[in-house]
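Can anyone check this?
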Amino acid sequence: MKGILASIQALLLAILLAAMPVAAADAPAQVQAKETHNQAQLWRDARSGQAGFTTVKGPESGVLIQSGGETWRELRNGPISLYGGIALCAVAVAIGLFYLRRGMIKLSGPSTGRQIQRFNGVERVAHWSMAISFVILAVSGLVLLFGKHVLLPVIGYTLFSWLAAIGKNLHNFVGPLFLLSIIVSFFLFVKDNVWKAEDADWIAKAGGLLSGKHVPSWRFNFGEKFMFWFGVVFLGLAVSISGLIMDFPNFGQTRDTLQTVNIIHAVGALLFVCLMLGHIYIGTIGMEGAYASMRTGHVDEAWAKEHHELWYNQVKQQPAEPAKAGQGTAAAAHS
Protein backbone atom coordinates (compact mmCIF):
# COMPACT_ATOMS: atom_id res chain seq x y z
CA MET A 1 0.00 0.00 0.00
CA LYS A 2 2.78 2.35 0.92
CA GLY A 3 4.43 1.53 -2.36
CA ILE A 4 1.32 2.50 -4.30
CA LEU A 5 1.01 5.85 -2.48
CA ALA A 6 4.64 6.59 -3.09
CA SER A 7 4.20 5.88 -6.79
CA ILE A 8 1.18 8.21 -7.01
CA GLN A 9 3.08 11.02 -5.21
CA ALA A 10 6.01 10.59 -7.54
CA LEU A 11 3.68 10.75 -10.60
CA LEU A 12 1.95 13.91 -9.36
CA LEU A 13 5.28 15.56 -8.63
CA ALA A 14 6.50 14.69 -12.10
CA ILE A 15 3.36 16.18 -13.69
CA LEU A 16 3.70 19.35 -11.59
CA LEU A 17 7.35 19.80 -12.51
CA ALA A 18 6.54 19.25 -16.17
CA ALA A 19 3.73 21.87 -16.14
CA MET A 20 5.81 24.62 -14.53
CA PRO A 21 7.86 25.51 -17.67
CA VAL A 22 4.67 25.57 -19.78
CA ALA A 23 2.96 27.97 -17.36
CA ALA A 24 6.06 30.11 -17.27
CA ALA A 25 6.12 30.22 -21.05
CA ASP A 26 2.39 31.08 -21.24
CA ALA A 27 2.75 34.07 -18.91
CA PRO A 28 4.63 36.32 -21.40
CA ALA A 29 2.28 35.18 -24.14
CA GLN A 30 -0.73 36.27 -22.10
CA VAL A 31 0.87 39.65 -21.36
CA GLN A 32 1.73 40.05 -25.01
CA ALA A 33 -1.84 39.18 -26.04
CA LYS A 34 -3.17 41.74 -23.59
CA GLU A 35 -0.83 44.40 -24.92
CA THR A 36 -1.79 43.54 -28.51
CA HIS A 37 -5.36 44.74 -27.89
CA ASN A 38 -4.14 48.03 -26.41
CA GLN A 39 -3.14 50.05 -29.51
CA ALA A 40 -3.64 53.53 -28.06
CA GLN A 41 -0.05 54.59 -28.49
CA LEU A 42 0.08 53.13 -31.99
CA TRP A 43 -2.90 55.18 -33.12
CA ARG A 44 -1.61 58.28 -31.36
CA ASP A 45 1.55 57.94 -33.41
CA ALA A 46 -0.46 57.33 -36.59
CA ARG A 47 -2.54 60.48 -36.01
CA SER A 48 0.47 62.63 -35.14
CA GLY A 49 1.01 63.56 -38.78
CA GLN A 50 4.61 62.38 -38.76
CA ALA A 51 5.68 60.62 -41.91
CA GLY A 52 6.55 56.95 -41.75
CA PHE A 53 8.29 54.72 -44.25
CA THR A 54 6.66 53.83 -47.54
CA THR A 55 7.87 52.89 -50.99
CA VAL A 56 5.23 55.17 -52.55
CA LYS A 57 6.66 58.57 -53.38
CA GLY A 58 4.60 61.74 -53.21
CA PRO A 59 3.39 64.53 -50.88
CA GLU A 60 2.35 63.10 -47.51
CA SER A 61 2.63 59.55 -48.84
CA GLY A 62 4.20 58.51 -45.56
CA VAL A 63 1.38 60.00 -43.47
CA LEU A 64 -1.18 57.31 -42.67
CA ILE A 65 -3.81 59.55 -41.04
CA GLN A 66 -4.15 63.31 -41.59
CA SER A 67 -6.19 64.54 -38.63
CA GLY A 68 -6.97 67.86 -40.29
CA GLY A 69 -9.51 66.07 -42.44
CA GLU A 70 -11.84 65.75 -39.48
CA THR A 71 -11.55 69.48 -38.75
CA TRP A 72 -12.30 70.26 -42.40
CA ARG A 73 -15.33 67.96 -42.38
CA GLU A 74 -16.73 69.55 -39.23
CA LEU A 75 -16.28 73.05 -40.65
CA ARG A 76 -17.78 72.25 -44.04
CA ASN A 77 -20.75 70.26 -42.74
CA GLY A 78 -21.18 72.46 -39.68
CA PRO A 79 -20.96 76.27 -39.60
CA ILE A 80 -20.30 76.78 -43.32
CA SER A 81 -23.36 74.80 -44.39
CA LEU A 82 -25.52 76.15 -41.55
CA TYR A 83 -24.68 79.85 -41.69
CA GLY A 84 -24.22 79.81 -45.44
CA GLY A 85 -27.70 78.39 -45.88
CA ILE A 86 -29.14 80.95 -43.47
CA ALA A 87 -27.41 83.78 -45.35
CA LEU A 88 -28.77 82.63 -48.71
CA CYS A 89 -32.30 82.34 -47.35
CA ALA A 90 -32.03 85.73 -45.62
CA VAL A 91 -30.91 87.47 -48.82
CA ALA A 92 -33.67 85.81 -50.85
CA VAL A 93 -36.30 86.83 -48.28
CA ALA A 94 -34.93 90.40 -48.10
CA ILE A 95 -35.09 90.73 -51.89
CA GLY A 96 -38.64 89.39 -51.91
CA LEU A 97 -39.74 91.84 -49.20
CA PHE A 98 -38.04 94.74 -50.98
CA TYR A 99 -39.82 93.85 -54.21
CA LEU A 100 -43.18 93.68 -52.44
CA ARG A 101 -42.56 97.11 -50.93
CA ARG A 102 -40.87 98.87 -53.86
CA GLY A 103 -41.89 96.88 -56.90
CA MET A 104 -40.07 97.32 -60.20
CA ILE A 105 -38.19 100.61 -60.40
CA LYS A 106 -39.82 102.25 -63.41
CA LEU A 107 -38.94 105.36 -65.34
CA SER A 108 -40.40 108.51 -63.85
CA GLY A 109 -41.47 109.71 -67.31
CA PRO A 110 -42.28 108.29 -70.73
CA SER A 111 -39.64 106.76 -72.99
CA THR A 112 -38.31 108.95 -75.79
CA GLY A 113 -38.00 106.18 -78.36
CA ARG A 114 -34.42 107.25 -79.00
CA GLN A 115 -31.83 104.59 -78.21
CA ILE A 116 -28.16 104.95 -77.31
CA GLN A 117 -25.61 102.17 -77.07
CA ARG A 118 -24.69 101.12 -73.55
CA PHE A 119 -22.81 97.86 -74.28
CA ASN A 120 -21.12 96.75 -77.48
CA GLY A 121 -21.14 93.20 -78.81
CA VAL A 122 -17.84 92.14 -77.21
CA GLU A 123 -18.93 93.42 -73.80
CA ARG A 124 -22.23 91.57 -74.00
CA VAL A 125 -20.56 88.30 -75.04
CA ALA A 126 -18.14 88.60 -72.10
CA HIS A 127 -20.97 89.40 -69.68
CA TRP A 128 -23.26 86.58 -70.81
CA SER A 129 -20.36 84.10 -70.83
CA MET A 130 -19.64 85.01 -67.24
CA ALA A 131 -23.35 85.02 -66.30
CA ILE A 132 -24.15 81.61 -67.82
CA SER A 133 -21.05 79.95 -66.39
CA PHE A 134 -21.78 81.53 -62.99
CA VAL A 135 -25.32 80.11 -62.93
CA ILE A 136 -24.03 76.62 -63.80
CA LEU A 137 -21.35 76.83 -61.12
CA ALA A 138 -23.74 78.25 -58.51
CA VAL A 139 -26.44 75.62 -59.04
CA SER A 140 -24.01 72.69 -59.17
CA GLY A 141 -22.09 74.01 -56.16
CA LEU A 142 -25.24 74.40 -54.08
CA VAL A 143 -26.26 70.85 -55.00
CA LEU A 144 -22.89 69.53 -53.83
CA LEU A 145 -22.98 71.52 -50.58
CA PHE A 146 -26.63 71.27 -49.56
CA GLY A 147 -27.95 68.43 -51.73
CA LYS A 148 -27.63 65.66 -49.19
CA HIS A 149 -29.63 67.73 -46.69
CA VAL A 150 -32.28 69.12 -49.05
CA LEU A 151 -32.54 66.95 -52.18
CA LEU A 152 -31.50 63.49 -51.00
CA PRO A 153 -34.51 62.97 -48.68
CA VAL A 154 -36.84 64.05 -51.51
CA ILE A 155 -35.48 62.40 -54.67
CA GLY A 156 -33.66 59.40 -53.16
CA TYR A 157 -30.14 58.03 -53.48
CA THR A 158 -30.18 56.90 -57.11
CA LEU A 159 -31.36 60.15 -58.67
CA PHE A 160 -29.28 62.27 -56.31
CA SER A 161 -26.12 60.28 -57.11
CA TRP A 162 -26.61 60.99 -60.81
CA LEU A 163 -27.37 64.64 -60.14
CA ALA A 164 -24.32 65.05 -57.90
CA ALA A 165 -22.02 63.30 -60.41
CA ILE A 166 -23.23 65.49 -63.29
CA GLY A 167 -22.98 68.59 -61.12
CA LYS A 168 -19.43 67.77 -60.04
CA ASN A 169 -18.22 67.31 -63.61
CA LEU A 170 -19.96 70.46 -64.80
CA HIS A 171 -18.43 72.34 -61.89
CA ASN A 172 -14.93 71.13 -62.69
CA PHE A 173 -15.07 71.85 -66.42
CA VAL A 174 -17.01 75.14 -66.39
CA GLY A 175 -14.82 76.67 -63.67
CA PRO A 176 -11.86 77.52 -65.96
CA LEU A 177 -14.26 79.08 -68.49
CA PHE A 178 -15.66 81.29 -65.71
CA LEU A 179 -12.14 82.45 -64.83
CA LEU A 180 -11.45 83.30 -68.47
CA SER A 181 -14.63 85.38 -68.67
CA ILE A 182 -13.63 87.24 -65.49
CA ILE A 183 -10.23 88.14 -66.97
CA VAL A 184 -11.78 89.36 -70.26
CA SER A 185 -14.48 91.33 -68.39
CA PHE A 186 -11.89 92.96 -66.17
CA PHE A 187 -10.01 94.48 -69.09
CA LEU A 188 -13.23 95.51 -70.82
CA PHE A 189 -14.87 97.26 -67.86
CA VAL A 190 -12.08 98.37 -65.52
CA LYS A 191 -11.75 101.84 -67.07
CA ASP A 192 -15.37 102.65 -66.15
CA ASN A 193 -15.16 101.24 -62.61
CA VAL A 194 -12.62 103.61 -61.08
CA TRP A 195 -13.59 105.85 -58.17
CA LYS A 196 -15.27 109.14 -59.00
CA ALA A 197 -16.06 112.01 -56.63
CA GLU A 198 -19.78 111.56 -57.39
CA ASP A 199 -19.65 108.06 -55.94
CA ALA A 200 -19.55 109.53 -52.43
CA ASP A 201 -22.92 111.20 -53.01
CA TRP A 202 -24.32 107.91 -54.34
CA ILE A 203 -23.16 106.12 -51.17
CA ALA A 204 -24.65 108.81 -48.90
CA LYS A 205 -28.04 108.48 -50.61
CA ALA A 206 -27.87 104.67 -51.03
CA GLY A 207 -28.34 105.13 -54.75
CA GLY A 208 -31.87 106.40 -54.21
CA LEU A 209 -33.16 102.83 -53.80
CA LEU A 210 -35.08 103.64 -50.62
CA SER A 211 -36.02 107.24 -51.30
CA GLY A 212 -36.73 106.82 -54.99
CA LYS A 213 -34.86 110.07 -55.72
CA HIS A 214 -32.50 110.25 -58.69
CA VAL A 215 -28.75 110.20 -57.92
CA PRO A 216 -26.53 111.18 -60.90
CA SER A 217 -23.77 108.72 -61.78
CA TRP A 218 -21.37 107.84 -64.55
CA ARG A 219 -21.57 104.73 -66.74
CA PHE A 220 -21.52 102.56 -63.61
CA ASN A 221 -22.73 103.73 -60.20
CA PHE A 222 -20.99 102.84 -56.96
CA GLY A 223 -23.18 99.78 -56.41
CA GLU A 224 -22.07 98.39 -59.75
CA LYS A 225 -18.47 99.30 -59.02
CA PHE A 226 -18.66 97.50 -55.69
CA MET A 227 -19.99 94.43 -57.47
CA PHE A 228 -17.18 94.69 -60.01
CA TRP A 229 -14.29 95.01 -57.53
CA PHE A 230 -15.48 92.99 -54.55
CA GLY A 231 -17.71 90.52 -56.36
CA VAL A 232 -16.24 89.84 -59.80
CA VAL A 233 -12.57 90.65 -59.17
CA PHE A 234 -11.96 89.67 -55.52
CA LEU A 235 -14.49 86.90 -54.88
CA GLY A 236 -14.48 85.74 -58.51
CA LEU A 237 -10.71 85.31 -58.54
CA ALA A 238 -10.72 83.78 -55.04
CA VAL A 239 -13.19 81.03 -55.95
CA SER A 240 -11.61 80.51 -59.38
CA ILE A 241 -8.03 80.16 -58.15
CA SER A 242 -9.03 77.94 -55.23
CA GLY A 243 -11.11 75.88 -57.65
CA LEU A 244 -8.15 75.41 -60.00
CA ILE A 245 -6.01 74.20 -57.08
CA MET A 246 -8.62 71.52 -56.37
CA ASP A 247 -9.21 70.81 -60.06
CA PHE A 248 -5.54 69.95 -60.61
CA PRO A 249 -4.23 68.31 -57.40
CA ASN A 250 -1.19 66.83 -59.15
CA PHE A 251 1.17 69.76 -58.57
CA GLY A 252 2.38 68.84 -55.11
CA GLN A 253 -0.64 69.97 -53.08
CA THR A 254 -0.95 68.32 -49.69
CA ARG A 255 -4.22 67.28 -48.10
CA ASP A 256 -3.96 70.24 -45.73
CA THR A 257 -3.64 72.63 -48.69
CA LEU A 258 -6.66 71.14 -50.45
CA GLN A 259 -8.76 71.30 -47.28
CA THR A 260 -7.82 74.94 -46.70
CA VAL A 261 -8.62 76.06 -50.24
CA ASN A 262 -11.88 74.10 -50.13
CA ILE A 263 -12.97 76.18 -47.12
CA ILE A 264 -11.92 79.39 -48.90
CA HIS A 265 -13.77 78.22 -52.01
CA ALA A 266 -16.99 77.45 -50.13
CA VAL A 267 -17.06 80.68 -48.10
CA GLY A 268 -16.16 82.85 -51.09
CA ALA A 269 -18.72 81.14 -53.30
CA LEU A 270 -21.51 81.60 -50.76
CA LEU A 271 -20.72 85.31 -50.43
CA PHE A 272 -20.54 85.61 -54.21
CA VAL A 273 -23.95 83.97 -54.67
CA CYS A 274 -25.49 86.26 -52.04
CA LEU A 275 -24.15 89.33 -53.87
CA MET A 276 -25.19 88.05 -57.27
CA LEU A 277 -28.76 87.45 -56.10
CA GLY A 278 -29.06 91.20 -55.64
CA HIS A 279 -27.37 91.91 -58.97
CA ILE A 280 -29.63 89.47 -60.81
CA TYR A 281 -32.71 90.97 -59.14
CA ILE A 282 -31.84 94.54 -60.20
CA GLY A 283 -30.88 93.37 -63.67
CA THR A 284 -34.17 91.53 -64.31
CA ILE A 285 -37.39 92.31 -62.44
CA GLY A 286 -35.97 94.99 -60.16
CA MET A 287 -35.43 97.77 -62.68
CA GLU A 288 -37.21 98.59 -65.91
CA GLY A 289 -34.89 98.52 -68.91
CA ALA A 290 -31.89 96.96 -67.11
CA TYR A 291 -32.22 93.53 -68.70
CA ALA A 292 -32.83 94.96 -72.17
CA SER A 293 -29.63 97.00 -71.91
CA MET A 294 -27.52 93.86 -71.68
CA ARG A 295 -29.68 91.82 -74.05
CA THR A 296 -29.72 94.35 -76.89
CA GLY A 297 -26.86 96.63 -75.87
CA HIS A 298 -29.08 99.74 -76.12
CA VAL A 299 -31.15 101.80 -73.69
CA ASP A 300 -33.67 104.55 -74.11
CA GLU A 301 -32.31 108.05 -73.63
CA ALA A 302 -34.80 108.63 -70.82
CA TRP A 303 -33.45 105.56 -69.00
CA ALA A 304 -29.82 106.65 -69.47
CA LYS A 305 -30.53 110.18 -68.23
CA GLU A 306 -32.51 109.01 -65.22
CA HIS A 307 -30.12 106.31 -63.99
CA HIS A 308 -26.73 107.42 -65.33
CA GLU A 309 -27.11 111.11 -66.03
CA LEU A 310 -23.40 112.00 -66.00
CA TRP A 311 -22.62 109.22 -68.46
CA TYR A 312 -25.60 110.25 -70.61
CA ASN A 313 -24.35 113.84 -70.80
CA GLN A 314 -20.88 112.59 -71.71
CA VAL A 315 -22.24 110.40 -74.50
CA LYS A 316 -24.43 113.19 -75.90
CA GLN A 317 -21.45 115.54 -76.07
CA GLN A 318 -19.50 113.10 -78.20
CA PRO A 319 -19.76 113.48 -81.98
CA ALA A 320 -22.09 110.97 -83.57
CA GLU A 321 -20.35 108.08 -85.33
CA PRO A 322 -21.26 107.31 -88.94
CA ALA A 323 -23.81 104.50 -89.20
CA LYS A 324 -22.25 101.17 -90.17
CA ALA A 325 -23.59 99.03 -92.96
CA GLY A 326 -26.65 97.13 -91.82
CA GLN A 327 -27.28 99.53 -88.90
CA GLY A 328 -28.71 102.46 -90.85
CA THR A 329 -32.27 101.20 -90.72
CA ALA A 330 -32.08 100.50 -86.99
CA ALA A 331 -30.54 103.90 -86.30
CA ALA A 332 -33.22 105.62 -88.34
CA ALA A 333 -35.95 103.72 -86.50
CA HIS A 334 -34.65 105.03 -83.17
CA SER A 335 -34.19 108.63 -84.29
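Reply from J.R.: I decoded it. The mean pLDDT is 84.
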